[in-house]
Amino acid sequence: MGGIVADPGGGVAPEFVDVDVPGGSLRTARWGAGSRTVIGIHGVTASSVSLAPVARHLDAAHQLLAPDLRGRGASGRLPGPYGMQAHARDCARVIDALGSGPAVVVGESMGGYVAVVLAAEFPELVDRLVLVDGGLPPPLPPGLDPGAVLEAVLGPALARLGTVFGSEEDYLDFWRAHPSFTDGLSEDTEAYLLYDLEAVEGGFRSRVSEAAVREDSAQTLQDPQVISEALESLRCPIVLLRAERGLLNQPEPLLPEAVVDQWRRTLPQLVDEVIPDTNHYSLMFGARGAAEIARLAFGTHEVSSSLAAPSVQSGGQHV
């Protein structure tokens, strides 16, 4: 395990620790010092700091660990290979180095797929899964070429990753115009966005590796069997939290009901909850979504009936 490094400031400041992994060190945020471990795994172009809204609800019994996945944040220069298996093995090293298993694993967006593979490959390290708008293979419309879908999905993200912004404020303004942030950026969201930046000639640019985003996205879209086989092997409790709306605040959610119904038949332990009036981003960064993630991570895995949407079902029963 490497040394402790200073936090970047803003939001809920964690301690940062470097964990030895193949190829170098994986930067890991740590909040709290409790004996019970929760590990949070972020999305495809995100970082450890995306877990800060959840960390606000931390109690004395828990610690929350959140690595910058290989190719992101302060782990941005770690080499490949990437992919769900590589990230899962890195996360297992984080639990071994800084925590004690079995841990509660929270997977946000793409981090949900990493969480599923982690639980399949290292079941002794995982107590239960909290999947946040991710973890189930996304549906592809029939007849579409997965490669073409990949380019369509990645195009806007890669354009952002390659853009040099004149100032940090310009970068925040870019996100303020995003349809999912019409209510503005919270303190935690701003801290998360600024953590993503590095100074380059002419201004600031995201630290996220394009190669990592391409490889990870290609696996989830073009080789979903990796995730499907991992899911089918799981025996631990699973709670899936879904946003009511999608990535761009559109009415269609990222994971439609038909996909959840399919996996509920395969995984009888799967409990599904939709958080009303949330999109993909506000589910993780908004107060309501973060509070529910925290309740499931730090407390019981039972679904809150006061928050669940009326249409959500668990094991055939309304919750």
Mean pLDDT: 88
Q: How much is the radius of gyration in Å?
A: 18 Å
In whole angstroms, how far apart are the ends? 43 Å
Poorly predicted residue ranges: 2-11, 301-319
Class derived from helix and strand content: alpha/beta
Instruction: Please tell me the CATH architecture by its name.
Output: 3-Layer(aba) Sandwich
Portion of residues within helices: 25-40%
* Total number of beta strands: 13
Biggest pleated-sheet summary: 9 strands, mixed
Number of domains: 1
The run of helices and strands is EEEEHEHEHEHHHEEHHEHEHHEE
- What is the class in the CATH system? Alpha Beta
The CATH homologous superfamily is called Alpha/Beta hydrolase fold, catalytic domain
Number of helices: 11
Shape: globular
Proportion of residues in β-strands: 15-25%
Would you give the CATH topology? Rossmann fold
Looking across the biggest beta sheet, what order are the strands in?
1-2-3-5-4-6-7-10-11
